[in-house]
Amino acid sequence: MIILVILTAAGPLAGTAAAAGGARARQAGWAGAAGAGVALAAAVCLLVAQLHRAPLRGWGGFLYLDSLSCFFLLTVASVTLLAAVGSVAYLSAEEDSGRLSRFQVRLYFIFFGLFASLMLASLETGNLGLLFVLIEASTLASAGLVGLEARSNSLEAAWKYVIITSFGVTIALAGTLFLFYSASGLHLAPDLALTWPYLFSHAHALAPQSLRLAFLLAVVGYGTKVGLAPMHTWLPDAHAEAPSPASAMLSAALLNTGMYAIIRFLAIARAGLGGSFPRGVLLAFGFASIVIGVLFMVRRGNFKRMFAYSSVEHMGIIAVALGFGGVLGLYGALLQILNHAIAKSVLFLSSGDVALRYKTREAAGVRGLLAAVPFTGGALLLASFAVLGSPPFGLFLSELTIVRAGFADANPVFPLLLLALLGIAFVAMARTTTGMVTGEASPSPSPYRGRGAAVAAVAPLAVGLAALLVLGLWIPAGLDTVIRHSMAVLS
Amino acid sequence: MQSLSATSTAGVQSLSASSAAGVLLDLAGVLILLLAFACLGSKLFNRYVAYYGAQSVVLSFAAGVAAFTFHSIELWILAVATLAIKGIGIPVAARRLLVQRLELKRDTALSTGLSTSLIAGGALTAFAYLVTKPQLLPHGVVAAAVVPLSTAVILLGGLGMVVRRHTVAQLIGWLIVENGVFLGAITLVATFPFIVEAGIFLDLVAGVLIMLVVVSGLTRRLASASAAELRELHG
After folding, report:
1. Chain B closest CA to A232's CA: distance in Å?
2. Domain that holds residue B164
3. Claim: this prediction has a pTM higher than 0.80
4. pLDDT tier at B7 (50, 70, 90 boundaries)?
5. How far apart are CA A206 and CA A210, in angstroms?
6. Is residue B75 situated within a structural domain?
7. CA within 20 to 30 Å of B49's CA: A290, A293, B56, B68, which one?
8. The complex's ipTM?
9. Are B181 and A156 inside 8 Å of each other by CB?
């Protein structure tokens, strides 16, 4: 068991090691992809092994693995694999064209591996202090990815990213301290003090005022990483300026890791305070994020920026679903997390392919994708419809579940508002993406040299879309069980 | 020595507010708050760095007091690390690599006047007491006195980041926020695992290094590292 835990967290470091040893983009990339494959395999094994067992504990509370952690490990490890394969194509193309130096390429793979492995490790710990340490460390590793291209724009984005999220996560640490103060009436054994399972099982005995403050600070703090409005301001810049596979990691893995931290605090707050306070907080931040995300998606411009605002919107939807609660709300939230992660990975990876071919990130500069590069164009179109929640893809199912959860909840205004906003988002984003894929084809030479890179560019798109389609039609029994077990934490 | 010993009446191993160590910690907290105010009321980059350094030295003294009371080797290590890294290392690096190399003197990128930001700082301190004081913590424990102070320092650091738009000033603001959190963490001493404290430290050092690289890169590109000039990305 412990071996699997270590393999999951350390797998992506293979790329880091290869790059640090001086490998070029292709070798370091494939090493990283192989490592990510190992991590995903180990995560699946862990998930299956933990399916009907008590949570795994060890190392004085530093290691804690229940269904919820396994579910997030599966999500983040899948995204890491997709993005790692995409990195092979993207980075070798950038290296061949001379836009990135060999040093920058090596830095990319070093930071990419560190970033992935720190996020995976943060999902495996039960100690809330260590959770902070790992999440903050993953922020720093990914700041290197955002600023990689070292142009003034990307450095500006990296600065905004690192200062805003570091500040946010420090606020979350203050929240963790208040959670601890709320436990100061309990007789804690030293090494149990900050562990999540201990605090969760004693949630009813925590001092409510301090717990309320702790939850609020944690939502604001980790919400900065999740990109909940109004703490989202770093997000569109970082996503637009990072190399596309790194944007996929930010949007589909990092935001979810932040959400995982919020869910851990939410579980304690629900148990200790009852449902209404956490519900109000999550609905407020959730709807603010959806509104902000949708409004900024209307603007036509940089397409990676638009996808980033769509991430803000989706994180809002997930927060709203967690706020609705109940069986439907929680099931929808977790399903939405997985679906959104896969769809956003496909979307950012295909947008990376487009950016390489057309050397622009402006939507107005791209036309006729379907005619010029049918596969990438098709993947972009399908993934954007999937993200917008059209059937038959997985997000349709999860968003439907969330809206139903809203109607099952007391006030029908919220789900109606949610539906209206989803409608606006659909029009706003589909308008831009259909403009990009239709029309006269303009010449776009393939940026990839050799078959390996071309396959690496296409494979994650095909696999991701297939997974989305499957999740829209059928939820595997094992996944269903793990989601239901994860929900037990929250209800 | 009896009055210095730790009490565990509230469950958490903690100091009583009336013990000598409790009074010293309390005093250190007040000094740290005053230094945060001094930083907020200043306009010179040299002063920002100097006040931050002084604040960190007081913080390491507070950690030393806690270490002495609890006879904890791990806390002694933290106290020494705070002195070496936050009290000396970071201020020296910030002065050499940022203030002197970029020839920063007077901070002109303030969005409000100094008196306004000081008044806002006073209001935030009052707010910190309002939020954290009543019934939040068990009475008679030193944490009850230090936590409002540490919350106020966090808020003042955040205010500094909002009011000042120069990247270096924002970096110092974040470091002050971090000092505030650390002050709160000291009062939890024995129950806050050492690995976590050490990890927070490592994160801080790595964070400062990355920010130094980004700020110098930005300065080379833009000839100005004021966040007020960072206007290319918006919307």
Report:
1. 12
2. 14-222
3. yes
4. very low
5. 8
6. yes
7. B68
8. 0.89
9. no
